[in-house]
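Quick one - inputs below.
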Amino acid sequence: MSKNIREININQIKIHDPFWSAMQHRMTDTVIPFQEKVLNDEVPGVEKSHAIENFRIAAGLSEGEFYGMVFQDSDVAKWLEGVAYSLAVKPDNELEARADEIIDIIEKAQQPDGYLDTFFIVKEPEHRWQNLQECHELYCAGHMMEAGVAYYQTTGKDKLLHVVERLADHIISMFGEDKEPGIPGHQEVEIGLMKLYRATGKEKYKDMARYFLEERGKNPNYFYEEKKKRGWQHWGQYSLEPLDQRYTQTHATIYEQKEAVGHSVRAVYMYTAMADLAGEDKDQRLYEACQTLWDNIVKKRMYITGGIGSTVEGEAFTIDYDLPNDMAYAETCASIGMIFFAKRMLEIKPLGIYADIMEREFYNGTISGIQLDGKQFFYVNPLEVNPGTSGTIFGYKHVLPTRPGWYACACCPPNLVRLVTSLGTYAWSESETTLYSHLFLGQTADFDKAVITVESSYPWEGKVSYQVKAKKEKAFELAIHIPSHIRPDTLAVTVNGEKTDDMSFVKDGYLYLKRNWGENDVVALTFDLPVRKIYANTNVREDEGCVALMRGPVVYCFEGADNGECIQALRIPREIKAETELCKEGVLAGNVLIHLPGYRMESSDALYSEERPKRTDVTLTAIPYYAWANRGENQMRVWMPEE
Amino acid sequence: MSKNIREININQIKIHDPFWSAMQHRMTDTVIPFQEKVLNDEVPGVEKSHAIENFRIAAGLSEGEFYGMVFQDSDVAKWLEGVAYSLAVKPDNELEARADEIIDIIEKAQQPDGYLDTFFIVKEPEHRWQNLQECHELYCAGHMMEAGVAYYQTTGKDKLLHVVERLADHIISMFGEDKEPGIPGHQEVEIGLMKLYRATGKEKYKDMARYFLEERGKNPNYFYEEKKKRGWQHWGQYSLEPLDQRYTQTHATIYEQKEAVGHSVRAVYMYTAMADLAGEDKDQRLYEACQTLWDNIVKKRMYITGGIGSTVEGEAFTIDYDLPNDMAYAETCASIGMIFFAKRMLEIKPLGIYADIMEREFYNGTISGIQLDGKQFFYVNPLEVNPGTSGTIFGYKHVLPTRPGWYACACCPPNLVRLVTSLGTYAWSESETTLYSHLFLGQTADFDKAVITVESSYPWEGKVSYQVKAKKEKAFELAIHIPSHIRPDTLAVTVNGEKTDDMSFVKDGYLYLKRNWGENDVVALTFDLPVRKIYANTNVREDEGCVALMRGPVVYCFEGADNGECIQALRIPREIKAETELCKEGVLAGNVLIHLPGYRMESSDALYSEERPKRTDVTLTAIPYYAWANRGENQMRVWMPEE
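Output:
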């Protein structure tokens, strides 16, 4: 068995999109080279990485001690995966040659039995596989598998693929029903194993992924017993209590988990693998388990920006509707993981509810993690920031008002790299009969059925066209996701210039066009992109009395740079008359800004008064949320009081 | 020199007030006996106190080890001070006899040189006076001084007074210009020394208080140098960094401190002593320093309830206008300290601005600390509580949704006892020419000039009368504080039934009545107590778009018990039509409740929607803030969105 709806290969897609090409070039031209230097310890002022040197030492090519986090290897893996995709976006022979060299080192570092983790090879060989909860061996393995598969897919080179196959085989030899029990502390290996399964066709990798998923929560005390057995902890006094089963998603089996809990990145990585497996095995029960968790997140535990995991403590989900704006955690990586999850759900059922969330993440809570110059990064993505408080006062210390540079635990930047460079693979999936377009994205996509060239002005304008050049097989269906924010009465679809009025083709968020395609058929879509006022559910305490603005998929925010001091005193009127402006200058050039008449409340100097603050008319300016904090430290809010 | 305006003796006042007598009886009948049992380790289930046993051991009357906090002695001192005042409220020979016995033990525990601190006498005699920052010897000494003075004032017995005089003399022998430098870690001894000065007339105690106050901040690194010198820390890894000079109010001299910073209780205890000294020495510069700090607190750093010190981290002040409701710290003791501060400021200048704050504290942020049954206590006084979040999720863990019972670090309960039992001393002060009434309080007050009997229906009704029976000196001034919330056009004042229209007598918040008083002159005041909508300064982010209700001095809040679930979805209309109801049944009997037409917003199930939540008409009920959390765990808010 395998999925009815399959992902497509990144090499099939060439993106030329006004919005996303720039973002991709930021990754290929700035972030990847910068991270390469970091990994090689060539950037003064940035905390030493030593990650490649660790591999050299493990390979016997260098002498020295291991240095870095226990999961330092994953930095190399994620970088390699990003490099793999970047080579599809922008071929670079020299970069590829350097990546090949690193892969050579990795191969040499691998132990005869297939084991591969430099922390344990170099530093604590006697402690291998004893501390799955804390020591991230399976996590690093998963990332290396993703890198191996990606590098194979985009370059055709299989050296790293073979390394990770041997690594996976070693893992299979260690854990399982008839071997030692085991589950990863930080879920990720399940994703890697699923990719390895698809790249090699070998069922054993899928079986291993299923084992890790289904073993989880069978013995909720597993990590506690593991700790007792080994008698040591990696993080010393900072070690987490292994009995916090919700943090580790071990409180119940994957089928019994009804709410998204615990460390949010680990959670969505697990859900991603669950959905992947459900799709491959056409496992309805597992799909329903995924759907339950999906619903809990998107209906009760997600910021409007797509941010998930609202508390810094444990970088975790909390409870339904607990979505504080100024204390948000909303890790960039968690939003990225949510895209992974959405993609797998789309490969089970192409429903608009999944593509809508994928779009929400792509345009908001993920790319808010990177400075427009590609040089600084947010780990935490708040929806409100107040200099003097944010980053300073208890409760808000994790909420930085500006993006810091590269940091020691640099999980988010390379995660963004691999996401954005592989964007093409999120744009489409394919079944026997149908090509599904999930995102409006300027590109040329080369399928067996056809070459499709998309021109898109999205998200700034409601204008997208699909030029279809059918190949041999001319009768197929093109299914185009129509984002739920598009009002049906404003959507106009033409095929070769002729209007298609029958919107009964739109089902579950997709426009289905079935015909015998010619060599130059053009499907053109136009739709309105009005500024929309959004209200939160009244259960969300922090958003009460407030509204947020969206336009298309883009969430907007208000910054001090445009609106002056004390932006909490600004008010959005009940009826808005918004105008848009394409910004042409400065760091925000290319973004559509929103201007609207609103109010500023001005109180007397008194701290408390019976006098209602006076209302004056002002013009408010909102900018895309993802672009906040690009003009220095200033106040920012997404949710604004309504008046 | 001494103050022009003096405090009066607690024995001069007998309170018979519908509101406050019940509160006083709660202290005398429930809290004092309960704490006595706690101090004697007679309450099962309550963490062992051992405080009296520590004194027995130090006195050689018992064998054993010291147990408890380094400041455990202060529990005994605060209890004794409360007992002293309670004996004025409600004489109790048996209680007094038991207190005498404890004082005998304390006297025996005192060392030949006057030293008195059981932790160091019993446990670490070699470490005396080496760790002023952490070890609270001066703090405990200050509380014992307050107890000794109080016990002398109410019982006439001077044994404890002599103990604390010897203790003070010992301290004087240790610290000063020509001796060792030193400042207290937790300010308090300055207050005790000032009281001791007034009780004994000995200037040296006032001089010592001035030394401790003026030495503070002269060398901002004092605690750091002290730490280096001694080479040990009391709290081990939990010790505070002595370089945090703002936490300890050592960042600048008392004259240079312009903002209220650091640990809020320590801060206001210091300001109290500063104001006390400024008054006694008619020190204008010091008074101005106090006024600067006062203004910073009441204009920028105080909750509407009078709560101060908004963050749990360091139990401290933060920055201007940072007043989160659901994360508030607002320690009960800090509000009590603010009353101490206000009283001393009134003794410098009888201004309504001080009496207004004193009233705000008495009716709100202090007594919210005690359950209506007198058995449970809040340390933290939030203005918003959400079960499931408060007390549970990071940031909100210190915010408990219901009052816990007695706790190990039980500073607030005995602080409330001594405040409420000594209430009479806050009601009046006296100058050569004038009797100042600061609070509307049912009572009989016996002055040299006159006996004044006050009948009061405050805070529930705007009706207060002062019956004046002049003694020999008939020509004096009666100055009655008119709270600033009273609208002048609703205030009617009669003297012996004749209306006094000339409100030019009202100056700086006091109504001045100068005449030759007879033996039965009655000044009667009536005024309206409308329900008032209060707006916060727009700089207070957390209150934006919201209003709070007050009636008289009482802040109101909304609880789930009256208003159902999801109270953040309730709305106060722009124009309110409020009605009041005297509650006659249940735990809130005797309190005036507010009912008003309002709205409930109801959203669809969607987390985010373009549809504005639907508005339905509801009747809202508000209860006095201090009485919240007396009906089990439920949601509570002071600030409600306006619609």
